[in-house]
Amino acid sequence: MPKALCLISLVASILILVLFLADAVMGLIGMHEVAPLRSASMLMDFTFIVIGGIMIYLSWTTYREQR
User: Where are the transmembrane segments (predicted)?
Assistant: First the structure.
C-alpha cells in the first residue's frame, strides 16, 4: 500500500507541474487565451512549479526507499 500511495503522489505532482508549467509558458509567449488557467498569476505559476518539483523529488525518494 505505501508504494501505491507514493506512485499516486508522484503522478499528482507531475500533473501539477505540467499544468502550471504549460500555463506559465503560454502566458510568457502571449497565448493567454489558450493557457489552461488563462495565466492569471505568474507568481502562482512559478510557485506551483517549484512545489511540484519538490513533491516529485520527495515522492520518488520515498518510493525508492521502500524497495
Answer: 43-63
Q: Is the pTM of this model over 0.70?
A: yes
Between CA 32 and CA 23 the distance in angstroms is 8
The total domain count for the chain is: 1
32 three-class SS = coil
Contact 58, 12 (CB under 8 A): no
For residues 9, 27, 29 and 12, what is the CA-based torsion angle, rounded to 10 degrees? Answer: 10
Range of the domain at 58: 2-65
How far is 51 from 43, CA to CA, in rounded Å? 12
